[in-house]
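Example record used in the benchmark description.
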Amino acid sequence: MTALPFLKQDVSGLIERHVLGMAEMGYRGLSEQWLKRRAGDLHWRLIARAMGQKEAVFTCRDGDPLYAAFCATSLQLSQPERPRLGGDLTLSAHLFRVGSGRLASLLRIEADGHDIGRMVLVSTFVGRSVEGSNRSVVRRSPRALAMPPDAPSLVRRVAERAALVARNVLRQDLDLEDFAREQAVLPCPATDFNAVGLLYFPSYSALADRALFQAGEIHSRMVASRHVVYLGNVEPGEWTGVSFRENSDGHDLILRGAKNRLLAMMRVRSR
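Model output (structure tokens):
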């Protein structure tokens, strides 16, 4: 079970404290899916608070709905083995500005009083240019702009690396030939999509792990880091191709939708 889900709010950030139960733990330690969902919720709450809103529901100047979609996430766990069933976990999140139209949060992760890692989440506001079509998602400006402090160098580096990858993809300046192994997976609306009908950002990691497992890459180690650059979304019922190559301590992966449309670039390291 989860205890004290909301512990503290101050002028600079949000802090949650959890008692780790089955909902928060996974097959190999802390559930990455749960952690990303909590991190995303904190990120959106921070944006809403910075805009003077009580709810994390955003609109553009014309009143059309907007979504704080992630451009990149970067998870680093120095001690992935430390979180334990029944143990304490503290999440501390702070919001920053990383350039025109982009906001980022830095999440610090503590288990039983020990600093075990951090996550950086970089987002921008998007909306659908065609109602009901996830392929029509484009950047849009919100009704009000949040003006948090400038990001520290750690957060800025993550945002800059993600922007560089995205630019290289647009220029077709990436060598994708050695991602020879591929598995096809079908996202499920009941588990992989969020409340506004978009493929949820933690689901990209879940689809990648599912593809690796289907390909026989059995995970016997814990995830120590996962860096994701998000490039597109899919429609319910659209197959996703996951291409990958193995490295000495993990995998590099590419997620594609129909007609080879790039959805995400990912790097996973285990220990």
